[in-house]
């Protein structure tokens, strides 16, 4: 291909809104152009890299035993109502009505579509497992789309799904996808960290994210340098650290009854430390949370009988409920863990009016003994004794509180936020965690029967009775991966593409496309094309500096410069090399072929 045939224009400066390297360089190199807020068009050079990435994903998934399928992007709203996610998915889901007034959805994800499609053809256990994937467009109405294609509103995802006969079969599918992911990211030149992750709105019993370390990452990773434990902060656990008194000794039970203490102007944990002259490890912090779309059965929970529930398909949930979270005061609540424990789509701190209504007191005085809602107790409270907490009365606290004696939680769960320096949760490991930022590139879930049960999927089991299959879900954010390749491979001049995803593998740049320079450039071009090398010939009538700047900005792995001064030699310059090498023109072609094949072998091996 010749540059004069490609519609592209490079930019000296990136748009002001582009604040990360991948967004800046993709815009400057004309790989993408913005069409609207969070909406980007792939231009020819960018699309070539995108298609290469897509092809690598397909090759590895096909090898693993998965089959590609192609559902529609717009799907019936009825299947989302069957699964119970019509309301719980929230405002990020773009809904519409067709001319027949039927509810429709622009897919933010495809669990419902896959389940409905497979349900229509599933009859016997002999058909399982069913393993299919798609690479398709998705839309999520992000409040603040940013970072170009790293977090856009419309994006491309690989979604893989399996229907399995039992947990053993599901685990085999799960592991096959995990291995395929590692091969995919190796071929892309990306070093990923598989981490334990929260299942979030997807639900299910377990999941792993495939993260790449990045200073602009949205996620905080918790890592152990000794045993290799890795988890997203939303999922990470740590060893329990004992609740201690001021002298560092374990807290002891008390026979004293709770005592009301007037605490004027004592609102924060710091205020309590000064007033009571105690370590915060002796305080129980209580927070009222508003819980959205909880599927947990709260009918027998304290104050649960009056809660209004709603049913969609086979799923019953509570659109709004409240919980009082009791946690040791030196710790923070992890809202992702909390939402998971409550099987909710979202949790958020209640506002001032709600707190007074539910807790009978304002912030700072909320207590577990007077809250008019169920109590969720963090594990950190389990070994606390003779504690101090809010009295449920403005201006007062209670001391000599014994958890289990003076109040009883409805749920006990790990909802603390793990932080750097906490002790590793792995048995036998005495490591201390450190943290780093990361971007999620892929995710695998064990969904279990969340969708198959709610959507009524059955098959005839070997014993002749109806059975419900279990399910797995596996995703890769294709645009995000492409941007992450650039984040990991660039310098102050531009992109440095790995050979597997470069728009073209070799760029031939004649100083002037005329005379002997044209003859040599054309001969090299034909030689490389005949050998199956993807080569771009820069035949533009531009200054050499413009050509060099563009080639380095776009990031072709190898540049061969044909200049009159150097002939019969040409300049041979890998994009990552500091200096060019002079090579006889008649040997440059074979050297370039070897360079490309060697780089591909290293990544694909």
What does the model show?
By secondary structure, this protein is of the alpha+beta class. The chain has 14 helices and 32 strands. The strands form seven sheets. Strands 3, 7, 8, 9, 10, 11, 12, 22 and 25 form a nine-stranded mixed beta sheet that branches. Strand 11 (219-223) and strand 12 (230-232) form a beta hairpin. The longest helix has 21 residues, at 44-64.
Q: Mind summarizing the main beta sheet? A: 9 strands, mixed
Mean pLDDT: 94
Number of strands: 32
What is the CA-based Rg, rounded?
30 Å
Query: What is the straight-line distance between the termini?
Result: 28 Å
User: What low-confidence regions span 5 or more consecutive residues with pLDDT below 50?
Assistant: none
Name the shape in a single word.
Answer: elongated
Strand fraction equals 25-35%
Share of helical residues: 25-40%
How many H/I helical runs?
A: 14
Structural class: alpha+beta
Quick description:
By secondary structure, the chain is an alpha+beta fold.
Give descriptors for this structure.
605 residues; alpha+beta; elongated
Q: Helices, strands, pairings?
A:
Blueprint: H1 21-28, E1 32-36, E2 39-42, H2 44-64, E3 67-68, E4 74-76, H3 77-83, H4 85-88, E5 94-97, E6 103-106, H5 111-121, E7 130-139, E8 154-164, H6 167-187, E9 193-196, E10 206-213, E11 219-223, E12 230-232, E13 259-262, H7 269-276, E14 283-294, E15 310-312, E16 315-328, H8 335-341, E17 346-349, H9 352-359, E18 375-378, E19 387-390, E20 396-401, E21 411-413, E22 434-448, H10 450-454, E23 459-460, E24 466-467, E25 470-477, H11 478-488, E26 490-491, E27 494-495, E28 506-510, H12 515-530, E29 535-537, H13 544-554, E30 558-562, E31 569-574, E32 581-584, H14 585-604
């Amino acid at each position: 291909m010749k540059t004069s045939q490609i519609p592209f224009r490079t930019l000296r400066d990136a748009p002001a809104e582009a604040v990360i390297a991948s967004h800046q360089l993709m815009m400057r190199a004309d790989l993408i152009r913005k069409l609207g807020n969070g909406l980007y068009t792939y231009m020819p050079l960018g699309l070539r890299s995108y298609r290469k990435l897509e092809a690598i994903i397909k090759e590895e998934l096909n090898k693993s035993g998965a089959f590609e399928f192609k559902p529609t992007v717009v799907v019936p709203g009825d299947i989302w109502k069957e699964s119970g996610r019509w309301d719980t998915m929230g405002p990020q889901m773009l809904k519409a009505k067709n001319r027949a007034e039927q509810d429709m959805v622009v897919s933010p994800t495809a669990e419902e579509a896959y389940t409905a499609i497979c349900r229509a053809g599933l009859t016997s256990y002999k058909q399982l497992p069913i393993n299919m994937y798609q690479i398709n467009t998705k839309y999520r109405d992000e409040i603040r789309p940013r970072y170009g294609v790293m977090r856009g509103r419309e994006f491309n995802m690989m979604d893989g799904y399996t229907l399995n006969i039992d947990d053993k079969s599901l685990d085999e599918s799960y592991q096959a996808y995990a291995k395929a992911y590692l091969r995919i990211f190796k071929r892309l030149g990306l070093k990923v960290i598989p981490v334990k992750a929260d299942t979030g709105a997807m639900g299910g019993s377990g999941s792993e994210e495939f993260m790449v370390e990045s200073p602009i990452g949205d996620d905080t990773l918790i890592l152990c340098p000794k045993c290799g434990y890795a988890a997203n902060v939303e999922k990470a656990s740590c060893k329990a650290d004992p609740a201690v008194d001021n002298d560092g000794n374990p807290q002891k039970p008390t026979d004293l009854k709770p005592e009301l203490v007037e605490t004027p102007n004592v609102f924060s944990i710091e205020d309590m430390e000064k007033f009571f002259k105690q370590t915060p490890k002796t305080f129980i912090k209580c927070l009222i949370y508003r819980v959205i779309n909880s599927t947990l059965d709260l009918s027998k929970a304290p104050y649960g009988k009056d809660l209004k529930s709603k049913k969609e398909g086979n799923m019953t949930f509570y659109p709004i409920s409240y919980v009082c979270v009791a946690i040791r005061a030196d710790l923070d609540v992890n809202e992702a863990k909390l939402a998971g424990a409550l099987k909710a789509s979202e949790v958020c701190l209640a506002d001032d009016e709600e707190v007074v209504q539910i807790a009978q007191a304002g912030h700072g005085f909320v207590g577990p003994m007077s809250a008019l809602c169920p109590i969720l107790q963090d594990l950190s409270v389990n070994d606390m004794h003779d504690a101090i907490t809010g009295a449920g009365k403005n201006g007062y606290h209670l001391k000599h509180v014994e958890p289990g004696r003076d109040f009883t939680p409805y749920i006990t769960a790990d909802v603390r936020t793990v932080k750097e320096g906490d002790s590793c949760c792995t048995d036998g490991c005495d490591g201390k965690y450190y943290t780093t930022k990361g971007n999620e590139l892929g995710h695998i879930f064990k969904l279990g029967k969340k969708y198959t049960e709610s959507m009524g999927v059955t098959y005839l089991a070997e014993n002749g009775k109806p059975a419900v299959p279990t399910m797995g879900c596996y995703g890769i954010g294709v645009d995000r991966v492409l941007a992450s390749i650039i984040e990991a491979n660039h310098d102050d001049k531009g992109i440095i593409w790995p050979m597997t995803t470069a728009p073209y593998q070799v760029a031939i740049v004649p100083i002037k496309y005329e005379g002997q320079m044209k003859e040599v450039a054309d001969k090299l071009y034909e030689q490389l094309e005949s050998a199956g090398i993807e080569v771009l010939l820069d035949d533009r009538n531009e200054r050499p500096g413009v050509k060099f700047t563009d080639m380095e900005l776009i990031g072709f792995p190898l540049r061969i410069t044909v200049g009159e001064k150097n002939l019969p030699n040409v300049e041979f310059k890998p994009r990552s090399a500091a200096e060019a090498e002079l090579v006889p023109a008649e040997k440059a072609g074979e050297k370039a072929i070897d360079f490309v094949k060697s780089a591909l072998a290293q990544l694909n091996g």
